[in-house]
Design goal:
NTF2-like_dom_sf; Nuclear Transport Factor 2, Chain: A; about 25% helix; alpha+beta; YchJ-like_M; globular; about 130 residues; YchJ-like middle NTF2-like domain-containing protein; binds zinc ion; SEC_C_motif; about 30% strand
């Protein structure tokens, strides 16, 4: 998806990308897991694979050992049309958080309850079932 600094941020904040998720993609730490989740969605939309890799915890089942393969799959996914992100639920405590969202990508809707943990900063771990609430 073609997104410039002056485009609206893919995360749906209504702000320009340069005033929203770009600062995280450039190195600022998201203040919470919700912010991380949104900036990861934006990173997929702009094809910032480095950010996706950097914010995925190494214990994640999605942490791909084959880096080249992972980068290619992120780049490929980024060609999709990231239409809209809806946040359904956000629960956070000191070092764990859950964000449930619905992402409208091309003609499908992806719904996930994502699990995040905080160490030096927040990391994405994986999607979990609802009973883990
Ligand atoms: Zn944003």
């Amino acid at each position: 998806m073609k997104i410039s600094k002056n485009s609206k941020c893919p995360c749906g904040s209504g702000l320009k990308y340069k005033n929203c998720c770009l600062k995280y993609h450039k190195g600022a730490n998201p203040k919470n897991a919700l912010c991380l989740m949104k900036s990861r969605y934006s990173a997929y939309a702009v094809g910032d694979y480095k950010y996706i890799i950097k914010t995925t915890h190494k214990i994640s089942p999605y942490y791909e050992k084959n880096m080249q393969k992972w980068i290619e799959s992120i780049r490929d996914f980024s060609k999709s049309d990231f239409k809209k992100l809806e946040i359904i639920d956000f629960v956070e405590n000191e070092n764990e958080a859950f964000v449930e969202f619905r992402a409208y990508i091309d003609d499908f809707i992806m719904q996930e309850r994502s699990y995040f943990i905080k160490e030096d900063k927040w990391y994405y771990v994986k999607g979990v079932e609802n009973e883990n609430k």
